[in-house]
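Input sequence (294 aa), recorded before submission:
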Amino acid sequence: MKAARFSIRLHTSYFDIFNGIFLVSVSFLTLYPVWYILVVSVSSAQYINQGAVDFIPRGFNVDAYKIVFQNEKIWRSYMNTITYTTVGTLINVLMTTLCAYPLARKDLFGRKAWTFFFTLTMFVSGGMIPLYLVIMQLHLINTMWAIVLPPAISTYNMIVMRTSFEGIPISLTESAYLDGANDIQILSKIIIPLSKPILATMTLFYAVAHWNSFFPAMLYLNEQSKYPVQVLMRDIVIAGDMTSDSGDIASNVNILATNYKYAVIVISIIPILLVYPLLQRHFTKGVMVGAVKG
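Predicted structure, token format:
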């Protein structure tokens, strides 16, 4: 018996060591690209040209960030992104909640048919051109609403939220009905206060999606002053459009175009990195609640 227990402990120890090494390796592969971008953005041009930059900054300087922060277009696009993300996320969470609550009710007439109808939209869509024509006919082209209204509800997120609502004991809503409450009062005073984890999760999902979105802006916005920071970042990183700051970059011997590009990338991902820890304590619980049932 002692030998068997020792063998089990030995195997468990080997597994823990292997598991730890594996998780550390995956974490490194995930985080290193972000860390490398940050390191290069604050390194000197001399060491970047020599290929000497790897894990730590070489010739530390923040000249690239000074040039980025002096660019009015970046500040304007940054504010546009914050506006689109804030308004879009509010619309998303509101519409998803209003859609998920009725579908979570067992007494909804045609509940299965409505659920099938919504689920069908995950697999069948009109396509990009019909959507563009609809938005054009609604006179939403070159407005914020063309960015925030078409993705008002994610069917997948709505199903996850509906499943979370179904986990709330029906006795609570029945008691509220007996006390004279209506559906709006039940939703606002019972369902929502008990659903903070799933609401936080949906907020994070939608906010990240809006913050990273750039293709709708390329389709529906005609004025550069209305571009989000992702479109501007695409133009800088992929197309190499740095005309407004090319003179400052060329006159500074400590930075390259690479420093400038990576600095723009860093400032575009910082807000999401700061928001995630605030919602992390609700995130895991919210996802698990929506995954218990189908």
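Checked by second reader. Residues 64-291 form a domain with the MetI-like fold fold (CATH 1.10.3720.10).
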